[in-house]
Amino acid sequence: MRALTVRPGTAGTLAVETIPDPEPGPAELLVEGLAIGVCGTDKEIVRGEYGWAPEAPDAEGRLVLGHESLGRVLRAPDGSGFGAGDLVAGVVRRPDPEPCGACAHDEWDMCRNGRYTERGIKELDGYGSERWTVPAKYAVRVADHLGLAGVLMEPTSVVAKAWEQVDRVGERAWFEPRTALVTGAGPIGLLAAMIGVQRGLDVHVLDLVADGPKPDLVRDLGATYHHTSVEEIARTARPDVVLEATGVGKLVFEAMAATSAYGVVCLTGVSSGGRQLPIDAGALNRELVLENDAVVGSVNANLRHYRAAADALAAADLAWLERLITRRVPLQQAASAFEAGPTDVKVVIELADPGSEAGAT
Fold first, then answer.
1. What DSSP string runs through 262-290?
2. pLDDT digits (tens, 9 = 90+) for 101-144
């Protein structure tokens, strides 16, 4: 079968290779791969900046890419809750072999010792192949009507967790947020805004661009689009919640100062190091303390968050979700998916042969 592979740590090694077909274990699903999404982490791996190959001798330093998955079940063990034809996504992270307390309680997204593994990222092959296997307990059903939009499951799980974190921090006392600001209108930001709207919040989204698909996607969601500044939005909206989805250092600190009293800021964007910013740390500290504000980081997701994501996607407007996928690339041309296009929001690599029944999904 064909698979999208890379040698982690070495740039220029992205390739479509032929690798052996997988053999499912007794508790595993055999899945036909339909699509994988491309995100910033994948691009870092392709550039040789991140990622770890499996330690198995036959891996030969190779990693199959793809942690944002969508597939169709070909075969499922009896009693697994899955059957042939089901659309599924695979969970990314696995607890470490000698689990920390969090992993032992199925909260592997909060692993404390760093010995977790991740499909397509860290020591486990990903879902970027024409067939893959996954233990049934690490598979999540995708609503049939979603079709290709089901590939948004993994990024939606990340923001489902972020919203859960906001709830848990806010519930240290009475908490009834009305207004939310999302910084960044990439896939994470837009999906975070989608869940905010589903929660009945007045959602504002900030991004740099004034045209292209992003402003319309935000407006059609029922949220308000801005391309001004956090400070300007905060003057009128004064958000109770800020979800920061860019990792841009300046926006991170502006977000901390933008909330109403007893506000919660959840950081989901990963910043690059090496850039210095002039910050009035004393003033920021004063505001955080005197207003009982909270700042929390959030990344990855566990099974609970995937299930919440499945519910959020099933409830979303399908036409809107489909518009998030702005480019579909066949597996043989996968390299082009890692080159940024001017109107890209979410780029998806289709794994199935276009002439097959799966490729027509």
1. T-EEEE-SPPPSS------HHHHHHHHHH
2. 999 999 999 999 999 999 999 999 999 999 999 999 999 999 99
DSSP result, 13-45: --EEEE-PPP---TTEEEEEEEEEEE-HHHHHH
d(CA 360, CA 148): 10
What are the chain's domains?
2-142+317-360 (3.90.180.10), 157-297 (3.40.50.720)
| pLDDT tens per residue across span 147-162 | 999 999 999 999 999 9
Rounded to an integer, what distance in angstroms lies between the CA atom of residue 225 and that of residue 244? Answer: 15
Pairing of strands 2-6, 15-18: antiparallel
Residue 160's nearest CA partner among 32, 43, 300 is: 300
Q: Which residues lie closer than 8 Å to 61 by C-beta, 6 or more apart?
A: 7, 8, 53
Q: Which residues contact 128 (CB under 8 A, 6 or more apart)?
A: 3, 4, 5, 33, 36, 64, 65, 66, 120, 349, 351
> Among 163, 171, 169, 173, which Cα is nearest to 198's?
163
Gyration radius (Cα) of the chain, Å = 20
Instruction: Compute the distance between CA of residue 52 and CA of residue 80 in angstroms, rounded to an integer.
Output: 30
Half-sphere exposure of 5 (CA within 13 A, CB side): 18
The contacts of residue 309 (CB under 8 Å, 6+ apart) are: 140, 153, 154, 156, 157, 159, 160, 301
Q: Supply 343's token pair.
A: 């109107």
Which one-letter DSSP state was computed for residue 129?
B
